[in-house]
Specification:
The complex is a heterodimer. Chain A is mainly α. Chain A has helices at residues 13-35, 39-46, 50-58, 65-74, 98-107, 114-139; strands at residues 145-151, 167-172. Classes of the chains: A mainly alpha, B alpha+beta.
Chain lengths: 174, 157
């Protein structure tokens, strides 16, 4: 195998750790940007110096679990530590970015329990059937009637997931 | 390095994929094209930071503090990768192109070329003009074609 194609985090666990810490820091920065929280404000909440916060954000290699929880909680976030298998035991391809895990979790409706996932799957399946019926009716040029509209949390997948309308339409053929 | 005026080489040890790839533009003759040399000379922690930035872009993620293009740029072609070191704001300037317009039109190639230490909030237009010029330089296009034979300058049929 070409050594240039082996991911840089395969070189040492220190490299891997640095990358995981960087992924975490992006989440802090995004939260700070979204809510207009400065490094000074974060330092105040944590009771540490601004230079310490700056150091963590710019060179996160020495973050430990306690610091991770402290920084997350200071911003009103929660943190999780996940170990996963992705079929790449030698880490040739590098780690999956933690933002990908978050995006996947949000796509599933931010479940908090295994039951939430089951409920999501069921609702999602019902919606897929509904969408399929709408498409079939439209494709066959068959008349259909709107029989009701309900509001609630949208579970319709799509590119505009986060901005998805909270309104769903139910239709039925006459 | 071949005797051509320009060459491109893949950024090593990052997750190149079929949607995004990232390369350095190199040159024996153009003194502005130093991104590869700067990258090679980075101390380990800063190099890790930059490799993390590359991964972030390659994975299709967004964070303007790490990397971004310019919306008002034709084809959104100019691109910057950003990092801080010793309280200085470093930038790699380059451009994005689509090197496989026929067989994989979704593939984006980020060609990193110039290194700048930024001293003002606004980007120096001279730096961006330097990259704009590169996009159209025939020998730069040839360098990309060597690795991606389908490539042609953006916008040209």
């Amino acid at each position: 195998m070409n050594k240039d194609t082996i991911h840089w985090t395969a070189k040492s666990n220190e490299d891997f750790q640095y990358r995981v810490a960087m992924d975490f820091v992006v989440q802090l920065e995004k939260k700070m940007d979204a809510e207009g929280i400065t490094q000074q404000e974060l330092a105040r909440r944590l009771g540490v110096s601004v230079s310490r916060v700056s150091q963590v954000i710019n060179k996160p290699g020495r973050l430990n679990l306690k610091s991770i929880v402290d920084y997350a909680r200071a911003l009103g976030l929660k943190a999780a530590v996940i170990a996963y298998e992705d079929g790449d035991q030698l880490n040739i391809l590098g780690p999956v970015n933690s933002e990908i895990f978050i995006m996947s979790w949000q796509k599933l409706g931010c479940p908090k329990t295994a039951f939430d996932i089951e409920d999501f799957k069921q609702t999602h399946a019902e919606n897929m059937i509904l969408r399929s019926n709408i498409f079939s009716a439209w494709k066959m040029h068959e008349p259909f009637t709107l029989i009701g509209v309900v509001t609630g949390k949208s579970v319709l997948p799509g590119n505009d997931w986060n901005e998805a309308s909270s309104t769903q339409s139910y239709i039925d053929k006459p | 390095m071949p005797p051509d005026e320009y060459a491109i080489t893949f950024v090593p040890n990052v997750r190149q994929n079929e949607r995004r790839k990232i390369v350095f533009l190199e040159s024996n003759t153009d003194a502005d094209i130093v991104a590869r040399k700067v990258f090679d000379d980075l101390v380990p922690n800063v190099k890790r930071t930059l490799q993390g930035r590359f991964d972030h872009w390659l994975d299709g993620l967004h964070h303007k503090k790490y990397h971004h293009g310019w919306d008002n740029e034709p084809n959104r072609s100019l691109y910057v990768i950003k990092w801080n070191d010793k309280q200085k704001c470093h930038r790699f300037y380059g451009f994005i192109c689509h090197p496989k317009p026929k067989t994989n039109p979704r593939l984006e190639l980020c060609v990193l070329a110039m290194h700048v230490i930024k001293t003002t909030w606004e980007t120096d237009p001279t730096d961006l003009n330097g990259v704009r010029r590169l996009i159209k330089v025939p020998t730069v296009i040839q360098a990309i074609v060597k690795l991606f034979p389908e490539y042609r300058e953006e916008g040209k049929k």
